[in-house]
Amino acid sequence: MRRAIFPGTFDPFTIGHHSVVKRALTFMDEVVIGIGINESKRTYFPTGKRVKMIKELFSDEPRIKVEAYSGLTIDFARECGAQFIVRGIRTVRDFEYEETIADINRKLAGIETILLFTEPELTSVSSTIVRELLQFGKDVTSFIPEGMEL
Question: H/E element holding 7?
């Protein structure tokens, strides 16, 4: 079985994240969406709420699991029995950062990282922008997956 984790804070989960998961399912048997808990990072939505929102979004897809984790992503990948880490990248800056992390993960744990380039129409979508819009009371439905309840 080819299992990958898709790690992130997903605060909130956007149409860009949704696209990465759907595309990963075309070549993976299972994708575990790992919601990283970083106590030093202030989030808009509590961890439990993010887990619930994403689980409900993918409730009809048995090949997707959603779990929160703390600690190193490679340790979470091992716990899940994942051979791969899937990451989405939007910019050259994202690529440079992800390449460095992928090299370290491969050296430390032998886990390969698969980078998926964001679809051109989604490059401007980020959780940071969605959070900012929410803070100002703006409608963000065009930036989150259809059917996801905030």
Answer: strand 3-8
Judge whether 41 counts as a catalytic residue. yes
Per-residue pLDDT for the chain (150 aa), expressed as one digit of tens each? 999 999 999 999 999 999 999 999 999 999 999 999 988 888 999 999 999 999 999 999 999 999 999 999 999 999 999 999 999 999 999 999 999 999 999 999 999 999 999 999 999 999 999 999 999 999 999 999 999 988
Residue of 3, 55, 78, 90 marked catalytic = 90
Task: Yes or no: say if 2 and 80 are a contact pair by the CB < 8 Å rule.
Answer: no
Catalytic residue of the set 17, 18, 50, 87: 17
Cβ–Cβ under 8 Å, residues 113 and 105? yes
17 is catalytic: yes
Q: Which of 124, 135, 136, 138 is nearest to 14 (CA)?
A: 124
Residue 64 identity (one-letter amino acid):
I
Active site residue 18: no
Q: Choosing from 18, 50, 87, 127, which is the catalytic residue?
A: 127
Quick check: is 50 catalytic?
no
For residues 112 and 77, is the Cβ–Cβ distance under 8 A?
no
Active-site residue (options: 41, 42, 93, 107): 41
